[in-house]
Write a structure and sequence with these properties.
- The protein is an alpha+beta fold.
- The chain is built from four helices and two strands.
- The chain has two domains: about 1-50, no CATH class; about 55-99, no CATH class.
- Helix content is about 45%, strand content about 10%.
- It has a two-stranded antiparallel sheet with strand order 1-2.
- The longest helix has 19 residues, at about 55-75.
- Bound molecules: zinc ion (ZN).
- Zinc ion binds near residues 36, 38 and 43.
Length: about 100
């Protein structure tokens, strides 16, 4: 594992990333507020939200997984539904891939 990825993962797991909720905790004033600017869901930006719950990040992650799967398999998909199951909050969301 690349050292920078290790450090980043450690920061996420320790809740030490400078997400907006951490900046609020450190009494840093943000004129634009502390909500996630990516999805406009009126939710405070936390590491969990940023990586697993934000509508924007979930969409990007789903598209990346579909692309990676196509790149790895390098073969046409079968008749069965080609889907990517991604974690979205507490519920599972299925994104159908193109056939
Ligand atoms: Zn968001």
């Amino acid at each position: 594992m690349h050292p920078q990825f290790k450090l980043f993962t450690w920061l996420v797991l320790q809740d030490r990333l400078n997400t907006r909720n951490v900046l609020r905790r450190r009494n840093k004033y943000l004129e634009e507020g502390y909500n996630c600017p990516m999805c406009h869901d009126d939710v405070e930006e936390t590491a969990v939200h940023l990586f697993f719950q934000s509508t924007f990040s979930v969409t990007v992650l789903g598209l990346a997984m579909v692309s990676a799967r196509k790149y790895i398999s390098n073969a046409p998909t079968s008749e069965e539904a080609d889907s990517v199951i991604i974690l979205h909050g507490c519920s599972m969301v299925s994104i159908e891939g193109d056939k």
